[in-house]
Amino acid sequence: MTEFLSGLTGLDLPILSWCLLLLAGAGVGLSKTAIPGGGILAVVLTAMALPSRMSVGVLLPMLIFGDFFAIGKYRPHIDRKQLVTLLPFALIGLGGGYAILRFVTNEQLKPIIGAAVLAMLALQQVNARLKKRREGLTAANRPVSPVVTAVFGVLSGMGTGMANAAGPILSLYLLIAGLPKLQFIATSSGFFFILNLLKVPLFASLGIITTQSLRIDLLALPSVLIGALLGFWLVKRIPQEVFNRIVVALAFVAAVKLLIG
Asked: Do residues 160 and 196 lie in contact, with contact meaning Cβ atoms separated by under 8 Å?
């Protein structure tokens, strides 16, 4: 099996690494359809399975593929005003993430990804506490300070540009803005779909997306589909809170491993 995979991709990896890569794909699919934190786990799993720079490039097409599922389902609920407000600042942050990727090596990037993921996990916990404090409130689309919008926009762009790991940052912003559930999911999906498409030529120019990384994606994309379909099936059957806790715990352990080497 490993000989076949190596011949197809030109990459000699142990079977465990291929399993981690497929789990990452399933995590992407689940994160788009059922488990908001699943994307963070996918980031660390790909970084554990592949060289750090390659992992960023391999994960991007998987994320775009997963975005199609979310966009197809939630597109009518996208808050276009929020997108127009956030995207200019996100583009600035995306440029910063691009600069970081341009000058760091594989060895330097792995702990950076680990630290970024730990920071994102901390923000996820802030998200959860903020959501609990605001349960029962009916206010939607609350006005947000332009400074707050700028800060979160830049950080979201930098996080996704550097390590595909900005979901919790945007989630916290959308909670502050008070978007209802469907608008929340749809706007987040639209935001990252646009930025992920913009990242393709940037990553290609850095040699992060290559014909080799795309061959690896061909093997991983079916697992994204399986994860998305599984998410559609599970979302109504198993408590979201249980899945979120499992994902956060696994992502924390994996991020620490990346950080300490």
From this structure: yes
One-letter identity of residue 182: L
Residue written as tokens 């142990």? 14
Per-residue pLDDT of 52-86, as tens digits, reads 889 999 999 999 999 998 888 778 989 999 999 99
Summarize pLDDT for 129-141 with one digit per residue, the tens: 776 655 554 455 5
Could you tell me the pTM of the whole model? 0.83
Residue 75: both structure tokens together: 């597109």
Q: Are 36 and 171 a contacting pair, CB within 8 Å?
A: yes
Tokens 């379909």 correspond to what residue? 229
Nearby residues of 192 by Cβ (< 8 Å), 6 or more positions away: 63, 67, 160, 166, 167, 170
- Identify which of 15, 175, 205, 164 has the alpha carbon closest to the alpha carbon of residue 82: 175
The per-residue pLDDT for range 88-118, each reduced to its tens digit, is: 999 999 999 999 888 888 778 878 877 877 8
Which residues are CB-contacts of 208 (< 8 A; sequence separation ≥ 6)?
A: 53, 54, 56, 57, 101
Q: Is the dihedral of CA 70, 75, 80, 84 positive or negative?
A: positive
pLDDT band at 39 (very low <50, low <70, confident <90, very high): confident
3-state secondary structure 126-184: HHHHHHHHCCCCCCCCCCCCHHHHHHHHHHHHHHHHHHCCCHHHHHHHHHHHCCCHHHH
State how far the Cα of 182 lies from the Cα of 75, in Å rounded to an integer: 10
